[in-house]
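User: Here's a chain of 195 residues. Predict its fold as tokens.
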Amino acid sequence: MRSVATTVNRLLLGLLGLVLLVLGGSVLAVGLGAPAPSWWIHQGRDDVLLGAGERTRWRDSGWWWPVVIAVLAVLLLLALWWLAAVLRRHRLTEVLVDTGDGEGAHLRGRALEDALETETAGLDGVARAHVRLTGRRTAPKTRVRLLLEPDADPGTALRDLTDRPLDHARESAGLAALPAEVRLRGVRHHAERVS
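Assistant: Prediction complete.
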């Protein structure tokens, strides 16, 4: 779901940027003296964006201003929704640990991420690990990126990650399950010279 939102976000920003670039570039070109096409809204250097006739054409129509205000309000709400979606934090700040007394305890998400990273980086064949917690505080999920040594077996590294660090984190936080999305990548290295 996150990749779909990222793709839509990039597509909309790209289209908006392209439209603004074309419009701004054409207004600049006409303003600098380039000939304007017959369909273009500006006809020369001294032409204004909205003339007096264009500004007052719909003034007497009762439907005009409510429609303009409604369209602008919808555009404003869509822009605010998009901004909130872009700025929303996707990292889990705390995990709720069930202590059995009905109160519960709060475990800092960053502390659990650091513990997972440290234990994962110590596994055989792992050069570097990056862990991020997502999801809800009662049902966290992990995203793990592993940078593997050139001679590491991906299957073994994945099995070791599941059996040790993820299992330890799940047990220490008292969670029934700790789903993980793991991405493996190998260290770039030069071919060894054989003599």
